[in-house]
Design goal:
- By secondary structure, this protein is an alpha/beta fold.
- Helices cover 34% and strands 22% of the residues.
- Strand 3 and strand 4 form a beta hairpin.
- The radius of gyration is 23 Å and the shape is elongated.
């Protein structure tokens, strides 16, 4: 990005024009002053509250290989930009504008004709001013692949009862899951010890989610393959690598745009919701029933 201070606060279109390579002129499409009300922010006071975000985006595109001939299918459409914004907003609740800008830029650069992207996002309701972030990303710098090429195997989501976690045969069951050569996401229920009573719904929800995570760490202590993860990024990476992980639910549940319609105390229902979120190939309950899934008895050999 240019160091010229005269361009520091101009619209991305002007910055794109000022920094364009002279030997490779490009066309540009832009989105100006696109405003959406979104729940976003790292502070507790920003949770449960929507605030206005303003998007200004410019996409530089390479010249079409064939004449456009007034055919919308041969161009990068304006709708592509708004769809990149909407898709990035719908994935999960985010804390940082920087993360949102990166995801929008990544999605736009996956378009075959896109060469360089400028994304500017501003918060409009944090005071009598606009607070924002602007990034510039290029296809050459990012080395991105097409979204359509990011084919991950669909995982198995396995809900373990407390009896299964404590059972001496657990390593053998994990061996059987590992032998499937499929990514596996393990989920757990509440521990059997009494939980604190908060007397208010939101604090109680947090307490119950933390209790689920405590049980996840108890499972992790039983076998080194049970790695506890809490973010979509870690889970997606594990799915791509075909590994076994244990879901710590707090972050994903609290950040979900369309959250679960079950409380954390319905741990099996929460696991089923998570399986749908991951588009799991199969839901399995080991020693416990899982809504919409198959129930496996605690036998010496798992029939998978």
């Amino acid at each position: 990005m240019t160091r010229d201070l005269s361009l520091a606060f101009v619209h991305p279109e002007q910055r794109a024009a000022a920094t364009a390579p002279e030997d490779a002129p490009r066309d540009r499409i832009s989105l100006r002053d696109y405003v959406r009300e979104v729940e976003i922010g790292a502070f507790q006071e920003e949770r449960g509250v929507e605030q206005r975000l303003r998007f200004n985006i410019v996409v530089e595109v390479g010249r079409a290989g064939a004449p456009v001939e007034d055919d919308v299918d041969r161009i990068l459409s304006y709708d592509t930009i708004t769809e990149a914004v909407e898709f990035s907003l719908s994935e999960e609740r985010l804390s940082l504008l920087e993360t949102l800008a990166e995801r929008i830029a990544e999605r736009l650069l996956a378009e075959p004709r896109a060469r360089r992207v400028f994304v500017k996002i501003e918060k409009l309701d944090r005071g009598p001013f606009a607070l924002g972030i602007e990034i510039e990303r290029s296809r050459a710098q990012a080395g991105l692949i097409e979204l359509s090429e990011r084919g991950f195997a669909r995982p198995l989501v396995v809900f373990l009862s407390n009896a299964a976690i404590a059972d001496a045969r657990l390593p053998h069951w994990l061996d059987a899951l590992e032998a499937l050569e499929r990514p596996v996401v393990l989920t757990v229920g509440l521990p059997e010890t009494p939980l604190p009573r908060a007397g208010a719904p939101m604090p109680q929800r947090r307490i119950d989610l933390l209790a689920l995570e405590q049980n996840a760490w108890l499972l992790a202590a039983r076998d080194r393959r049970c790695i506890v993860v809490d973010s979509r990024t870690e889970i997606t990476h594990a799915i791509h690598e075909g590994r076994i992980v244990v879901w710590a639910p707090s972050k994903i549940v609290l950040d979900a745009v369309d959250g679960p319609d079950v409380a954390p105390r319905d741990a099996a229902g929460l696991a089923a919701w998570f399986g749908k979120l991951l588009e799991a190939e199969r839901l399995l309950g080991l020693g416990v029933e899982l809504p919409g899934g198959d129930t496996l008895a605690l036998a010496d050999r798992l029939e998978l």
